[in-house]
Amino acid sequence: MPGQLNNKIALITGAGSGIGRATALAFAREGARLFLTDISPAGGEETVAMVRAAGGEARFMKVDVTQAPEVAAMVQGAVVAYGRLDVAFNNAGISGTMFVPVADYGEDAWDRVIDINLKGVFLCLKYEMPAMLKNGGGAIVNTASVAGLVGSRVGVAYIASKHGVVGLTKATALEYVTQGIRVNAVCPSWITTPLTDPFMAQDPGLEGRMVTRQPGGRLCTVEEVAEAVVWLASDAASFITGHAMAVDGGLVVQ
């Protein structure tokens, strides 16, 4: 039985761990051929090995999403490898400095978060759009966060960047809706990934406090986010664009 992404050519940034890795495995399961990128070659190659071990097809390129020449080369690499680009999951991101009020937040720390989380998504979109238009369209999913839907005393740069991703998603969705390209975002709630592990280690009570805020009494999993991305990227979501999908167990509707 064909998968939801059968024979689709899919590009994933931040594929070396966490949500990116889980989505790569889910995309491969659904029949996509993958062009995976990450700032970490070790993590990216490990994901490629996992995809291949599961019977999927994947290639890897080291990419810094804050650098336009590298992002352009990334998209061109996917097209050269597979002939076209159908799906993109712009997922690379960092948490940056957390639990620091704006008056104490370092300018360099701010710039780094905005560069990776927001400028990085912008650059991906900038170079993915022409490639998809040559093939008649495609589907793009950006990683935002529930921190892009509501405020929180967590990290001002992270929250600002993720609100920016949601706005960027809506704007580009409207720009390209008549040209066959859909653009959506996933907004996970607190999740245990390599991105959040350092904060859990610094504050042993943090995970418990996060769980108490969740209506369902547990945290989100990377696999649950991956399934949302699969659906948004698939033809099953053909009339969905500009949507910021909360994958949060009801957190933001409280």
What do these coordinates show?
This protein is α/β, with parallel strands linked by helices and 254 residues long. It has a single domain, classed as 3-Layer(aba) Sandwich (Rossmann fold), CATH 3.40.50.720. The protein is 45% helix and 15% strand. It contains eight helices and seven strands, in the order E-H-E-H-E-H-E-H-E-H-E-H-H-H-E. It has a seven-stranded parallel beta sheet with strand order 3-2-1-4-5-6-7, sandwiched between helices. Strand 2 (33-38), helix 2 (41-53) and strand 3 (57-62) form a beta-alpha-beta unit. The longest helix has 28 residues, at 107-134. The chain is globular. The mean pLDDT is 94.
Radius of gyration: 17 Å
How far apart the termini lie comes to 40 Å
The CATH superfamily bears the name: NAD(P)-binding Rossmann-like Domain
The CATH topology assignment is Rossmann fold
Gross geometry:
globular
Give the mean pLDDT: 94
Biggest sheet features = 7 strands, parallel
- H/E topology pattern: EHEHEHEHEHEHHHE
So what's the CATH class? Alpha Beta
Task: Give the low-pLDDT segments.
Answer: none
By helix and strand content, what is the structural category? alpha/beta
- Give the beta-strand count: 7
Query: What portion of the residues fall into strands of 2 or more residues?
Result: 5-15%
Helix tally equals: 8
Percent of residues in helices comes to: 40-55%
Please give the CATH architecture: 3-Layer(aba) Sandwich
Strand order of the largest sheet: 3-2-1-4-5-6-7
> How many domain units?
1
